[in-house]
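pinned: reference chain
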Amino acid sequence: MYIDDDPYPSIHYTGTEDYFGGAYGFGNDIYLKRYHTYSGLYTGMFAILGDNAAFYNGQQRFLLYRFHVPDPIHFETGFRMTLDNLGWTGPRYDDYTSVAFWYQTLPHEPLRPLPGDGEMVMK
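pinned: its structure tokens
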């Protein structure tokens, strides 16, 4: 996470599993040969879509959440978060979607309108 104009990460984590509270391998059980959902107040994995028996390079979709309620990220001018996508088997091609909320001091000039469906392009 890059806060304001920091040239190096202001906050960093050891991996995606740790960031989302999933420990090593998102709870895959070596005896049952499948992943497990888990949930907590601020982190969890509430669904696994796809073949739950194929580990690591399968086409599962993990639906994860992380709320920064007890550890809010404070910034003044800008915030950027990046995720390294280097699995132990080589580069991964995961797709992440996120949402962010912030508190706005009023009065404030009107924000630009959000793009319409036709204006949003996958890159």
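why pinned: The longest strand covers residues 43-49. The beta strands are 2-3, 38-39, 43-49, 61-66, 79-80, 86-87, 90-91.
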